Q: What sequence folds into this?
């Protein structure tokens, strides 16, 4: 049992790191020819567009997320307690779903521009919706909750005495916010914005709707269009560099700073707002929530109902069920696998106990920071190499991994292991070394300790981690698109394809299912949050 | 090797840390309760973990019940040592009931035998009928009782207790430690109790081993440690001390308090150890000694007396005896005192 526990984490880490290393290795062998080819694929445009979008979305979510978090943390106004949780809801709506709803609503042929033209005449100027600005607005609305959640948690950790001290020294509430509260919350804000930026790097569907050429979009386009593995790999390597750069930047910005304050101290007391100020605060929260979630969701419901009535899509019935089964199956399988790997990693770290195992855990969780396209192309390259080796040995047939379920699950685990790991690791902290020692002294074998002590104690963490992976896989696009076995489509892919062809009504049904599944972890978050608040 | 537990020349250093246990030799007689006493960081918990097999000694041998479990090429892992362990925080499994906790080590037993053993142990620790409770539903004292029952369940050869009363409040601690000592004696188990509380060690144990800096400074019965400490460090750790300069000649010594009987023969300039409760005070207007300070505790009182600022003694008296601040008082010492060679002031 012991050597297995010691070796398994290392095995998992190597398996997760292998496709990423393979992509990174591509950087070391750029021949002049393929770079010339890359240049023709509008490389410079891809890089600048990617950078602009990442910065715009990062800045947008920083302002929106932090602002809303400060509003609900430091002031009280009608509906505050409710908004505090409802403002997280947009997390349930994937960027590409919000993207196509916006596109359908605000584009030239959409209801908004049509109505304005009918009212103000046909020569009306309207900003171009299919643009980098449009994409940035949509992605900001979709992902500000990451920053919002982390900022709110950071504000909640800050003791009221700090703010009181500043105000006693004559600084205004706003002045204290910029001089004291925000600098104290910096590590959390940086972490949130980095998460958003990495998500932006991963996205290709939203930007495709908005005609923005980013690196991720380029990789998918090169792959779909010409099956050009070499170019796709080179682009993926570049994307990997950008992602690594962002992570490095986060480390630098966060610095050694880790400000924690006494947990028992009283929290910042919200200042009651009255009259027009209260109305503005409530209105701002309601507006953001409406634009980012309620109106798009209502639009999806309306479309879905219309689609039900008209049933213009002849394929809708049986196919829909198949997509649902495939999606649920893939998500459940990936969730179980990721949870199992996370359990092995965390137990290995604690029972195997060496620095090697801790390093393995670090390595194995790197995949989450890597854009989906990088993971997808990396896994593809690795599997192709395997297949080559198999063919070379004359073992052609059922063993081929490219385009198999094995490959898809492998890629999901590489991409999402970190999500499950974080959750399992947090609950594993509850299993103190004392408990394990007590069990050992009572004659329990390692296997029995894992089964009777670790597993039940980390069950909640395992379930939560598995659920997060489940939801992530449900709305995953690039990895699935690159690696799915022939003819196997998920709800997300179905939505994306229909929307890409402007079949808004038909796309609404699978999109709604994805949103509903996405609400699950938020409900859990609210419940946990309330439990914490009660304590 | 005789004795239920025997450690011989055991050494343990932590990586990049100081030596926790240095050349330790210790023996616990069969069926006895040994207290491993010492200040924090003296290596007593490490010693316990070495016996349990949770740490592996760098050198030296560990024997349990005549079987070598560590040393040389021998290594028996904790799960095969038949050792019961009670931690400071109980370390009960939070997701298992009281019955499941106690029955954890009895997994291979038939169900009804196991159920009977659990009930019997719960009766033993005075918690009969609480099988279905979960640890978080128990008080701190109850948790420690369950932890003890759990450790005793598989009939271990030895039971090891690591500061089991440290997290309890004073009244409960006094009550529970009395009970635990009784339970251990009733079970006839050899036990090692780690504690930093000298009262706990002296009042509970059959023998006490005082550890200082990773080594056993002195071991013996509680009386031996208290009345015949072999060094100043031991004397200071196990109780309150007064030091009186004197001149020893054989079993007698001379000092400002007249001739005093010694516990052991000595010679030359010495410091005499006088425990506060050895001092008797009687009012005497002619005496050079006067009462300088009184600290009243209720059950007794600590009275500071001095003839001049050079010499100060503290006496522990019954709280019934009236003592007036500043009054003249005569001093008598009862019982023999220990003598230590005079430390030359440098």
A:
């Amino acid at each position: 049992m012991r050597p297995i526990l010691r070796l398994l984490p290392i095995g998992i880490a190597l398996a997760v790191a292998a496709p990423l290393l393979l992509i990174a290795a591509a950087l070391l062998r750029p021949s002049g020819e393929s770079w010339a080819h890359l240049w023709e694929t509008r490389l410079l445009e891809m890089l600048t567009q990617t950078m602009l979008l990442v910065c715009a979305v990062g800045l947008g979510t920083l302002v929106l997320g932090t602002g809303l978090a400060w509003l609900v943390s430091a002031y009280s106004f009608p509906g505050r307690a409710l908004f505090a949780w409802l403002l997280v809801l947009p997390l349930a709506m994937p960027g590409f779903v919000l993207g196509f709803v916006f596109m359908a609503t605000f584009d030239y042929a959409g209801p908004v521009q049509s109505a304005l033209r009918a009212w103000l005449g046909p020569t009306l100027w309207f900003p171009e919706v299919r643009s980098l600005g449009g994409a940035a607005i949509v992605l900001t609305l979709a992902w500000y909750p990451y920053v919002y959640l982390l900022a709110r948690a950071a504000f909640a950790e800050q003791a009221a005495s700090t703010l009181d001290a500043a105000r006693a020294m004559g600084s205004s509430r706003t002045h204290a916010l910029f001089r004291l509260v925000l600098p104290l919350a910096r590590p959390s804000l940086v972490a949130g914005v980095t998460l958003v930026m990495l998500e932006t790097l991963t996205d290709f569907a939203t930007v495709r709707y908005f005609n923005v050429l980013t690196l991720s979009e380029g990789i998918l386009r090169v792959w779909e269009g010409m099956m050009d593995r070499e170019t796709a790999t080179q682009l993926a390597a570049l994307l990997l560099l950008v992602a690594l750069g962002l992570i490095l930047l986060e480390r630098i910005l966060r610095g050694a700073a880790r400000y924690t304050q006494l947990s028992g101290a009283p929290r910042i007391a919200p200042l009651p707002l009255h009259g027009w100020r209260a109305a503005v605060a409530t209105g701002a929260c309601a507006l953001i929530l409406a634009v980012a979630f309620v109106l798009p969701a209502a639009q999806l419901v309306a479309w879905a109902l219309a689609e039900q009535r008209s049933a213009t899509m002849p394929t809708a019935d049986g196919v829909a069920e198949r997509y649902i089964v495939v999606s649920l199956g893939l998500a459940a399988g990936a969730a179980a696998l990721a949870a199992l790997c996370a359990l092995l990693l965390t137990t290995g770290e604690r029972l195997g106990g060496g620095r090697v195992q801790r390093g393995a855990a670090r390595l194995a969780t790197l995949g989450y920071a890597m854009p989906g396209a990088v993971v997808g192309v990396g896994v593809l390259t690795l599997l192709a190499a395997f297949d080559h080796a198999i063919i070379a040995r004359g073992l052609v047939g059922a063993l081929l991994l490219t385009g198999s379920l094995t490959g898809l699950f492998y890629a999901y685990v590489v991409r999402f292991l970190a999500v499950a790991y974080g959750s399992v690791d947090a609950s594993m902290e509850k299993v103190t070394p004392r408990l394990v020692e007590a069990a050992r002294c009572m004659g329990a074998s390692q296997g029995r300790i894992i089964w009777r002590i670790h597993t039940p104690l980390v069950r909640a963490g395992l379930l939560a981690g598995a659920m997060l992976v489940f939801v992530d896989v449900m709305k995953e696009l690039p990895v699935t698109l690159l690696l799915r076995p022939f003819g196997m489509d998920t709800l997300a892919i179905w939505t994306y394809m229909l929307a890409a062809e402007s079949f808004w009504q038909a796309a609404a049904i699978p999109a709604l299912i994805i949103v509903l599944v996405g609400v699950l972890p938020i409900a859990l978050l609210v419940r946990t949050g309330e439990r914490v608040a009660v304590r | 090797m005789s004795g239920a537990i025997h450690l011989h020349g055991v050494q343990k250093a932590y990586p990049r840390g100081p030596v926790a246990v240095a050349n330790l030799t210790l023996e616990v007689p069969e069926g006895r309760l040994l207290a491993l006493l010492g200040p924090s960081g003296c290596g007593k918990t490490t010693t316990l973990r070495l016996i349990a097999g949770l740490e592996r000694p760098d050198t030296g041998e560990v024997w349990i019940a005549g079987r070598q479990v560590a040393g040389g090429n021998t290594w028996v892992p904790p799960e095969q040592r038949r050792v019961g362990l009670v931690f400071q925080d109980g370390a009960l499994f939070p997701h298992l009931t009281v019955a499941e906790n106690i029955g954890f080590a009895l997994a291979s037993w038939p169900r009804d035998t196991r159920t009977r053993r659990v009930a019997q142990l719960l009766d033993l620790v005075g918690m009969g009928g609480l099988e279905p409770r979960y640890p978080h539903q128990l008080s701190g004292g109850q948790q420690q009782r369950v932890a003890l029952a759990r450790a005793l369940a598989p009939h271990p050869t030895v039971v090891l207790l690591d500061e089991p009363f440290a997290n309890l409040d004073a009244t409960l601690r006094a009550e529970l430690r009395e009970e635990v000592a009784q339970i251990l004696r009733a079970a006839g188990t050899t036990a090692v109790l780690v504690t930093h509380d000298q009262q706990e060690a002296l009042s509970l144990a059959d023998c006490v081993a005082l550890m200082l800096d990773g080594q056993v400074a002195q071991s013996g019965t509680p009386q031996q440690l208290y009345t015949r400490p072999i060094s100043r460090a031991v004397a200071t750790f196990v109780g309150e001390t007064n030091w009186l300069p004197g001149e020893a000649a054989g079993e007698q010594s001379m000092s400002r308090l007249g001739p005093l009987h010694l516990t052991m023969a000595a010679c030359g300039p010495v410091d005499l150890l006088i425990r506060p409760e050895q001092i008797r005070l009687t009012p005497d207007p002619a005496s050079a000694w006067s009462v300088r300070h009184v600290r009243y505790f209720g059950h007794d009182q600590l009275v500071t007396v001095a003839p001049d600022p050079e010499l100060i003694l503290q006496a522990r008296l019954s709280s019934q005896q009236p003592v007036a601040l500043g009054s003249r008082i005569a001093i008598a010492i009862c019982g023999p005192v220990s003598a230590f060679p005079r430390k030359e002031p440098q």
Remarks:
- The longest helix of chain B spans residues 170-187.
- The two ends of chain B are 46 Å apart (CA to CA).
- The first strand of chain B starts at residue 5 and ends at 13.
- Chain B touches chain A at residues 52-54, 77-85, 87, 89, 91, 93-95, 104-105, 107, 150-151, 153-154 (CB under 8 Å).
